[in-house]
Amino acid sequence: MHNIDIDLVEMTLDVMKYAVDRITKTHPELGVPVKEEELKKLIGETITLNGIGGERAFEIWKDVLVKATVPIDHPRHLAFVPAAPTRASIMFDLVTSASSIHGAYWMEGAGGIFAENQAMEWLVSLTGMPTGAFGVFTSGGTAANLSAMVTARENWRKNDAFKNEKGLIITSVGAHSSIKAMAQVVDVDVLLVHSEDRLEGKDLKVAINGLTEQQRKRLFAVVGTGGTTNAGIVDDLEGIATICTKENIWFHVDAAYGGGALAADSVRHLFNGIEKADSVTIDPHKWLFSPYDCGAIIYRNPELAKKAHSQEGSYLDIFKDEGAHGFNPSEYQIQLTRRVRGLPLWFSLATHGTNKYKRAVERGIELANLTGQMIINNPDLELVREPSLSCVLFRRKGWKPKDYTNWTYTNHKQGFALVTPTKWKKNGSYETVARFCFINPHTQIDDVDKILKTMS
Ligand SMILES: *Cc1c(COP(=O)(O)O)cnc(C)c1O
Fold first, then answer.
1. How many CB atoms lie within 10 A of CB 278?
2. Mind listing the pLDDT tens digit for each residue in 348-376?
3. Which of 43, 76, 231, 319 gives 105 a disulfide partner, CB atoms 3.0 to 4.6 angstroms apart?
4. Is-above-0.90 flag for pTM?
5. Mutate to test the pocket of ligand 1, among 72, 139, 173, 178 (most ligand atoms within 8 A of CB)
């Protein structure tokens, strides 16, 4: 029998109280930026030989550190891709941690992995991919894209003709930075198609026809984007799929941000063709209201992923033994030890039902369209393009790049909003413009109105 440490019990209750408070708050403080030297001065040394005690450390967290962070679910956080994890999912994130489950192998994590897989079945069903398609939860879209690229390349290299070739992938300029970064990790070249807006099948065809014979031999994958991070543009997935099938090239769809919109009837048609992909990335921690970190990679043929990702080691053999056998998430992506990061999504989906998810995603799209109308009606502002999915790009007439930067800093320093500029191509060069991305269904039109007023 362990001795019950009274201090520890009290600490546990304090932490739980904090968690409950935070989970029930829909308008947490936005937080203000603080320089490292300043934080150091405010908190002093925290790692010492004998420890400063949980009470003090927790005080430092509450009084100083958390106030220098931006809660991703703040309703006026419209920068980058914000997030809005459901209360149910956050509570279950705590439960996931408290349950101490190793989520790599069925032998240890069966119950947790089973639940995760139920959530995964729903994700797969959103894509419309054929029976047999399945996936795993990853640390995010970057890890998902990397896992898919490794699988695609290993599958391509099965053929002796390509054993010593450096691979080549084609994607669009609108593709996420992680595609280029992960191509470097995998050591393959990337050809960027400078499509005007969405990447069309015909653009891809022109790009392939323009390859040298040597390049064509090295081309093993095409990456389409299901909702560009910058503007919410969905590529012509149907057209790209047709060409990839004909040319026998792996078709990956990066829907890290936009994947949630597969649940929304109003825009689902934009994703037609995604069901023909060989692999699809979706980030539940973006538009499916999961806490960080939760990405997902889905494969048309998971066996190919297993061939590419299974790790060998005498200490791991038991996991693959008949007696311990089951679905091992570690065999389908790059990570071995992993938390059962799909569990919070599972609990929240089970709690609320999928219709509620559908409505919450539709609300983000609706907010983008309503904001578009407000911008059209405001003589100082101008839409750069029609809102796409939940992204709105617009300009403040007469503003220079430094005005947008000041706008960002002022709103952030006042703890009012996190809104940032981006760039958009105009007549061959890039223009600085404002951008909103809506995820949080608690964002009100009044929040948007107040933010727009900070531009007048
Ligand atoms: C956010 C994003 C990624 C990267 O995902 P992380 O979860 O941040 O690793 C990849 N692709 C697209 C389209 C994204 O929007």
1. 25
2. 999 999 999 999 999 999 999 999 999 99
3. 319
4. yes
5. 178
